[in-house]
């Protein structure tokens, strides 16, 4: 069972916010300038379910054009699209990292379950530790690379 962020000691200047699938709310929050943000999301990349990744979207991925802005789902949470829209609206994020977790594939829409699969649930504590480590290293000015 994961420990609530409220029970963890965070480095000064680090804030934890759960936006869920509210991508538009996250976009507006990113209009406040941040030195760095760490987003956490599912990331299907072909690995075993529960595999964790640290992804750093490139500048070209987060640059926006009119077609990208039109494709933003206000109730969806695609981190790259959110970063694109925030940038298009004048927001500036110094550094953006995505901690992604490989989801368990599901078949049809009807087969989707509202809860996490066992491999993903088992990765939660490791993901929390990874986010804490990344945040601490970023606050200290240490090099953090994507994996």
Describe this structure in words.
By secondary structure, this protein is α+β, with helices and mostly antiparallel strands. It has a single domain (19-140), classed as Rossmann fold, CATH 3.40.50.1450. It contains 5 helices and 3 strands. α1 (23-29) crosses α4 (79-88). The two termini are 25 Å apart. 16% of the residues are buried.
Average the pLDDT over all residues and give the rounded result.
81
Approximately what portion of the residues adopt beta-strand conformation? 5-15%
Output the structural class: alpha+beta
- The global form is globular
Topology:
Elements lengths: L22 H7 L7 E6 L9 E4 L3 H4 L3 H5 L8 H10 L7 E6 L16 H23 L7
Parallel strand pairs: 1-3
Antiparallel strand pairs: 2-3
Helix pairs in contact: 1-4
Give me some keywords for this one.
147 residues; alpha+beta; Rossmann fold; 3 strands; globular
Short description:
The protein has helices spanning 23-29, 59-62, 66-70, 79-88, 118-140; strands at residues 37-42, 52-55, 96-101. It is of the alpha+beta class and 147 residues long.
């Amino acid at each position: 069972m994961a420990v609530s962020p409220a029970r963890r000691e965070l480095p000064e200047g680090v804030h934890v916010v759960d936006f869920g699938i509210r991508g538009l709310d996250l976009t507006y929050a990113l209009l406040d300038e941040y030195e760095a943000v760490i987003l956490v999301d599912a990331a299907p990349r072909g690995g075993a379910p529960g595999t964790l990744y640290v992804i750093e979207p490139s500048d070209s991925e987060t640059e926006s054009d009119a077609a990208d802005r039109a494709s933003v789902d206000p109730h969806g949470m695609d981190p790259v699209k959110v970063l694109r829209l925030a940038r298009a609206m004048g927001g500036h994020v110094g550094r953006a990292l995505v901690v992604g977790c490989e989801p368990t594939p599901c078949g049809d829409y009807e087969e989707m379950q509202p809860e996490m699969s066992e491999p993903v649930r088992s990765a939660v504590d490791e993901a929390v530790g990874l986010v804490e480590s990344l945040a601490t290293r970023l606050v200290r000015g240490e090099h953090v690379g994507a994996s």
